[in-house]
């Protein structure tokens, strides 16, 4: 007697022990970078300081991180969509000479994870979106 063909797929029996197997997490969509929260030298950071509340966004590059959690920052100037460059201030008593504007701030002033400027010296899209979200909480 010959086997009759069936429309149902043939199921094979396997010894399957799902308790011992480990599964990889599957992410569907664009690749998302894992974000660091700790800051290091040469990281760019977005901050909020009340004394500079007329300037938004406040962006700087970390020169050094001190043990007391304070940060030495080189301030940058730009807008959400323009190029960013270092802020230079005149040196007192030396006509025409300028130096980078460097200031020490508390690390609690940092409002977004550290980032790097793009190749075009602009803010990354993720940072721009984060700053737009934070704007309403600081300026109402």
Structure description:
With 140 residues, the protein is an alpha+beta fold. The chain has a domain at 44-138. The protein is 10% helix and 24% strand. The protein has 1 helix and 7 strands, in the order E-E-E-E-E-E-E-H. Strands 1, 2, 3, 4 and 7 form a 5-stranded antiparallel beta sheet that branches. The chain has a two-stranded antiparallel ribbon with strand order 5-6. The protein is elongated, with a radius of gyration of 26 Å. The protein starts with 43 loop residues before the first strand and ends with a helix. 15% of the residues are buried. Residues 1-20 are annotated as: Disordered.
Summed up, what is this model?
With 140 residues, the chain is of the alpha+beta class. It has a domain at 44-138.
Topology:
Layout: E1 44-47, E2 58-65, E3 70-77, E4 85-86, E5 88-90, E6 98-100, E7 102-106, H1 125-138
Antiparallel strand pairs: 1-2, 2-3, 3-4, 3-7, 5-6
Distance between the termini: 84 Å
Overall mean pLDDT = 85
How would you describe the shape?
A: elongated
Radius of gyration: 26 Å
Structural classification: alpha+beta
User: Please, what is the oligomeric state?
Assistant: single chain
Observed structural traits:
five-stranded antiparallel β-sheet; 24% strand; two-stranded antiparallel ribbon; single chain; alpha+beta; 1 helix; elongated; 140 residues
């Amino acid at each position: 007697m010959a086997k009759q063909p069936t429309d149902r797929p043939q199921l094979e029996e396997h010894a399957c022990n799902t308790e011992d197997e480990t599964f990889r997490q599957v992410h569907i969509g664009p690749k998302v970078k894992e974000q660091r929260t700790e800051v290091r030298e040469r990281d760019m950071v977005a901050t909020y300081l009340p004394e500079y509340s007329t300037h938004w966004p406040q962006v700087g590059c970390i020169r050094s991180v001190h043990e007391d959690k304070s940060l030495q920052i080189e301030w940058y100037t730009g807008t959400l969509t323009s190029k960013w460059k270092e802020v230079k201030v005149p040196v007192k008593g030396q006509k025409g000479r300028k130096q980078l504007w460097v200031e020490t701030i508390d690390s609690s002033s940092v409002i977004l994870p550290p980032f790097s400027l793009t190749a075009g010296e602009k803010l990354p899209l993720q940072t721009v979106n984060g700053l737009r979200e934070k704007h309403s909480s600081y300026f109402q």
